[in-house]
Amino acid sequence: MGGFVGEISRIIKGKSFETIVLQSLAEIFGENNIQSLIYHIGGEATLKDPELFEKGIRAIFKDGADLILNHIKYNAIRSKPVNHGERSQFSRSTLEENDHY
User: Fold this and answer.
1) Which of 71, 72, 86, 92 is at a distance of 20 to 30 A from 78, taking alpha carbons?
2) Model-level pTM?
3) Is the residue at 60 inside a domain?
4) Taking the chain (101 residues) in consecutive chunks of 10 residues, what is each chunk's mean pLDDT?
5) What is the tally of structural domains in the chain?
6) Does a structural domain hold residue 97?
7) Is the distance from CB of 42 to CB of 57 less than 8 angstroms?
8) Domain range for 31
């Protein structure tokens, strides 16, 4: 899996694709326009299937679809819970281990 479908599937692990999409679409188009857009991209089923959703968005917005899909990925990343058990390159212990002044 590559592109939007692969990335979003990896990012959302356990979160609702539908919730992230609805939030993102509301931010872009406004609450009042979401239902109409969903109808035109293929209905409620597209909110449960990232591949169908991407196809519908690309059919309507062509090259502009990338902006919408990137915003959805951004929201998915932004809403991703932080795993405090993981060590990132910026964690205190990692920074102290690499402190070679």
Assistant:
1) 92
2) 0.75
3) yes
4) 86 92 97 95 96 97 97 91 48 47 41
5) 1
6) no
7) no
8) 3-81
